Amino acid sequence: MTEHRRSSENGATEDRRVRRTRTRLTEALLELMKSKPVDRITVTELTERADVNRVTFYSHYGNVRALLDTVMDEVTVSCRSRIETHADQIIAGDFLPLATDILTYVDEHEQVFSVMVSSAGEVLFNRLADDIRDVCNRVVDPVSQAVESTGERLGDAELRRAEMIRDYQFDYIMGGIMNVVRNWFAGGRREPIEFVAAILASTTRAAGPESLRRNLSLAQKGPEEGETAGKNRRTAK
């Protein structure tokens, strides 16, 4: 019994030590990324900043990029789970619970998101956006929702164009959210989470499902008509 308790205590101590080491390495990486791209960060400067020796670093990660991948995996998993939790509300057109949940998570993980909204974090943001796009398309399936709500029937080519429109709108929405969060951070996050979440929720609703339903007519016309019109205007000049 005593040996078992000692073993458990030693294991708990080891786990805490591992968590502290990984936390220091993560904090050091994010701090360095504020001034340089991740590909220019060396293991030596990272371990010196974290006060961790190189042997310890390599016992956890193969290289600096592997550490960053671990950080981003944690972020994407957290965001993905929140979207899945609020899927029914999103489908119903209520984006406020998700926006509030996401902003709360962002606020609690200031260090990683302060990098993500900086000029050095574009790669990180793009990776997160791609992951959110995939989970939204899988869980929410906005094209099917839009088609069902209008009673339209789309052929294969029209469906592909509808998905293209959906992706353009997603880029538009994510770009707007990124700028809002960036400005929120730049201003010291003075506005309450509920205030910013309400703005994001109402704007996303207007630019999301409602707009996609209206744009289904573009899927039926196809981009070729717009291209022909553009050629005609150039010819007329």
Label this structure with key terms.
single chain; 82% helix; 0% strand; Arc Repressor Mutant, subunit A; 237 residues; mainly alpha; TetR family transcriptional regulator; DNA binding; Homeodomain-like_sf; 13 helices
Structural classification: mainly alpha
Termini gap: 91 Å
Radius of gyration: 23 Å
Number of domains: 2
Total helical segments: 13
* Strand residue percentage: under 5%
Shape, per Cα inertia axes: elongated
Order of helices and strands: HHHHHHHHHHHHH
Q: Would you count the extended β strands for me?
A: 0
In short:
By secondary structure, the protein is mainly α. Helices cover 82% and strands 0% of the residues. It is elongated and about 65 Å long.
Overall description:
With 237 residues, this protein is mainly alpha-helical. It folds into 2 domains: 12-62, Orthogonal Bundle (Arc Repressor Mutant, subunit A); 68-219. Helix content is 82%, strand content 0%. The chain has 13 helices and no strands. The chain has helices at residues 2-33, 43-50, 54-60, 64-85, 87-91, 96-108, 110-116, 122-139, 142-150, 156-186, 193-207, 209-221, 223-236. The chain is elongated and about 65 Å long. The termini are far apart. Mean pLDDT is 83; it is low at 6-11 and 226-231.
Q: How are the SSEs ordered, and which strands pair?
A:
Elements: H1 2-33, H2 43-50, H3 54-60, H4 64-85, H5 87-91, H6 96-108, H7 110-116, H8 122-139, H9 142-150, H10 156-186, H11 193-207, H12 209-221, H13 223-236
Helix pairs in contact: 1-2, 4-6, 4-8, 6-11, 9-12, 10-11, 10-12, 11-12
